[in-house]
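Hello again,

I reread your note about wanting to compare the complex against the isolated chains. To keep things tidy I'm splitting this into two emails, and this first one only covers the full assembly. Below are the input lines as submitted, including protein chains and any nucleic acid or small-molecule components. They are followed by the predicted structure of everything together. The single-chain runs will come separately.
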Amino acid sequence: MAEERKIVIPGETIVSGNSFLPSDGTYRDKDDVVAMRYGLASIDGQHVKVISLSGKYFPRRGNTVIGTIVDITMNGWLIDFGAPGKAFLSLNEVPRYINKNELRDFLDFGDSVVVKIWNIGARGIDVSMKMRGFGRIEDGMLMNVNPNKVPRIIGKEGSMVRLIRNATNCNLTVGQNGKVWVRGESLDGEINVKKIIEYIVKNSTINGLTEKVENFIKELGLNVIKENAPEVEEIEGEKIEDKEVNEIEEKNVEENE
Amino acid sequence: MVESLYKIRIDGRQFDELRPIKTKVGIIPSADGSAMFETGGTRAIAAVRGPRTLHPQHMQDSKTGVLRVSYGMMPFSVWDRIRPGPSRRSEEISKVCEWALSSVLDLSAFPNSVVDVFIQIPQADAGTRVAGLNAAALALADAGLPMREMISAIAVGKCDKTLIVDVDKAEEDFHEGEGPTDIPVAITSRTKNVSLLQLDGKISVKELAEVIEMAKLACDKILEAQMNALKERNGGTDDE
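Full-complex prediction:
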């Protein structure tokens, strides 16, 4: 991670120079690149951006989110996932054919779903559940965390999620909107996941978080397994490459075994 | 030049000295952003909710988000009692604060939605609208909303012929000579534009220019306090 990260406030100059390009949460004022949001400034080559530290979840394209069905229309469902406005899940964006009169049989009011944002337009947010790993939540436990801490829970290329999954034998899906779906064979495992996630959120600003979490897992009386053991259902959102990298890694591990 | 009747400030401050400032960000966990700003005996708290869908629908703007500010003094904020609920004064202050804040806030990414800012004054000793504005700017930044710059505000006043910074209640009630004048000013942090300017009393054009210069200097100090409050926020573990 870049060392030169500092907290900036709106209107504060991050860097000066015409070679820098203002990215997320910044704007150009003559020679300066200025913060437009409160958060951590990060300079990645030419690109300057501000990573938000607090506030609401702002949806972005490609994000995996977990929401609740709040309304059913003629040709789809409306989903609330804690963002301004509701998302629309079209009949065409579900994995199998549904009769227009039987929408409720597939997804009913109050059902929780894992969906992907595929478009954000002037009319609203469109979501899809056509890929593997998306769909209705049947069992397990849902927990809420601060959406700004989600990157820490996922870790670098999903490393933290893998760590938790291997230690507790539970599957977890992290929604970018700060909702985490945990499902394991036993309630004890799920509760352990909850404890670990709460620990991560509480200590998210500490350096060397992975090591701290490993120690915490040991404290809970669990084993830290470095390699991937169970079959993995990976949905990290944010970057699709991450998912691919993980899958390649998993294949390698299997081959080694 | 005729000497002013107001020679020493009642609380012993210099004429350009601010009251001691205390700030804290993230005081209301359930809000999307919140802050407290205190100068001397005046304390303001602000909470931000949103962006969220605006109802009734006819108030929505399909091009940009809407900012809504509500200012209110708590019944126990003064020695006597303030009648709770909206009043002519609180409606006016809500509106001017809304205008002052909307000049830096960019809600174009949130069409059809509203950002609500609630300013409450638990304790008042003059300068409540500027304290409220300082708290509101902090709370909006804490909510992670896009703002071109911060806002800092201060009340500059005049007792008889003396210009004073950060007026308190006793000075606001100084009725000798030319009497009291109260000028709340809000300055943006980067471009140093004036985003709020009100005048209660009498002042010459020349003196008003001086007042704005004094306000700019004072707002630099307030901005520093606001900046520290935001930078310290993440150090604490209570942010959630």
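For quick reference: The first strand of chain B starts at residue 21 and ends at 25.

B.
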